[in-house]
């Protein structure tokens, strides 16, 4: 049975990297432009994330994140470009609609920040097995309950999407119209969403029983059947990321 998660195992160097290394990349990708304070640092980190995704052969899977971010960026661009309270300098006009330089620059900064965060998190989510992350967290001393929460966060959305597809197929087989104009979709919404919610509640209860049967709350120290092999790239990547963070901090101070 396929794992219910966004994780994609391409056997690339990204899959072999330790989860903590990829978490450090997220921290670096977000902090470098914010600490540096320069707008051009956002495109630099975005380009780096795109290159990393391409090297891991998962760039195509990250495209929905890019398209989603463009929708948000467009809305932010319209709102800030037209109605930002600091708007003073006219940048360009389209008919009677006037965009201002201050608002557009503010929107560009926010949009780049959104895209940068989505891509950096995409690297982590698409190349890190949730179970592997939970195991490493527990080996580091975190509570199994914390690990379970993290695992659930990674799996809840893909699980609900899979359940929705199954229920939609079942409802269509019974003659229900789920595709068409807006009115048809509105009519089909409640018969589709209700079973999804009920199924999620039932799955939560069944999971709680399964965890209790397996001794989830036991106090004894946990043993491990599988030890994760070390990746030779981890020390080098961590060193580069820490160096970038220190460099941008020193640069900002001086």
Q: Could you describe the 3D structure shown?
A:
By secondary structure, the protein is mainly α. The chain contains 9 helices and 2 strands, in the order ααααββααααα. The chain has helices spanning 13-16, 19-36, 41-55, 59-83, 101-127, 130-139, 144-173, 182-213, 234-253; strands at residues 90-94, 97-100. It has a two-stranded antiparallel sheet. Strand 1 and strand 2 form a beta hairpin. Helix 2 packs antiparallel against helix 5 (101-127). The model has no long low-confidence stretch (mean pLDDT 84).
Averaged pLDDT: 84
The neighbouring-strand order within the major sheet is: 1-2
> Overall 3D geometry?
flat
Radius of gyration: 23 Å
Please indicate the percent range of residues in DSSP E strands (runs of 2 or more). under 5%
* Biggest beta sheet attributes: 2 strands, antiparallel
Briefly note the structural class of the backbone: mainly alpha
Order of helices and strands: HHHHEEHHHHH
Concise structural overview:
It is built from nine helices and two strands. The chain has about 250 residues and is mainly alpha-helical. Strands 1-2 form a two-stranded antiparallel sheet.
Helix/strand layout:
Blueprint: H1 13-16, H2 19-36, H3 41-55, H4 59-83, E1 90-94, E2 97-100, H5 101-127, H6 130-139, H7 144-173, H8 182-213, H9 234-253
Antiparallel strand pairs: 1-2
Helix pairs in contact: 2-3, 2-5, 2-9, 3-5, 4-5, 6-7, 7-8
Descriptive key words:
Energy-coupling factor transporter transmembrane protein EcfT; transmembrane; transmembrane helix; 2 strands; membrane; 4% strand; mainly alpha; 9 helices; two-stranded antiparallel sheet; 254 residues
């Amino acid at each position: 049975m396929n794992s219910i998660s966004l994780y994609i195992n391409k056997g690339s160097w990204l899959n072999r990297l330790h989860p903590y290394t990829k978490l450090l990349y997220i921290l670096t990708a977000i902090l470098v432009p914010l600490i540096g304070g320069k707008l051009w640092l956002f495109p630099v980190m975005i380009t780096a994330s795109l290159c990393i995704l391409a090297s891991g052969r998962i760039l195509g899977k990250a495209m929905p994140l890019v398209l989603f971010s463009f929708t948000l960026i467009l809305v932010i661009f319209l709102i800030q470009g037209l109605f930002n309270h600091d708007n003073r300098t006219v940048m360009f006009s389209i008919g009677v609609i006037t965009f201002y330089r201050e608002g557009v620059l503010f929107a560009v900064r926010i949009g780049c920040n959104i895209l940068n965060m989505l891509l950096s998190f995409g690297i982590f989510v698409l190349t890190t097995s949730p179970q592997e992350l939970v195991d490493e967290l527990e080996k580091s001393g975190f509570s199994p309950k914390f690990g379970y929460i993290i695992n659930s966060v990674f799996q809840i959305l893909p699980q609900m999407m899979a359940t929705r597809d199954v229920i939609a197929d079942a409802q269509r087989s019974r003659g229900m119209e789920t595709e068409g104009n807006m009115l048809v979709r509105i009519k089909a919404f409640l018969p589709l969403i209700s079973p999804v919610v009920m199924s999620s509640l039932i799955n939560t209860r069944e999971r709680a029983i399964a965890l209790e049967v397996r001794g989830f709350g036991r106090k004894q120290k946990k043993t491990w059947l599988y030890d994760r092999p070390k990746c030779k790239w981890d020390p080098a990547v961590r060193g580069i990321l820490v160096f970038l963070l220190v460099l941008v901090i020193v640069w900002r101070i001086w």
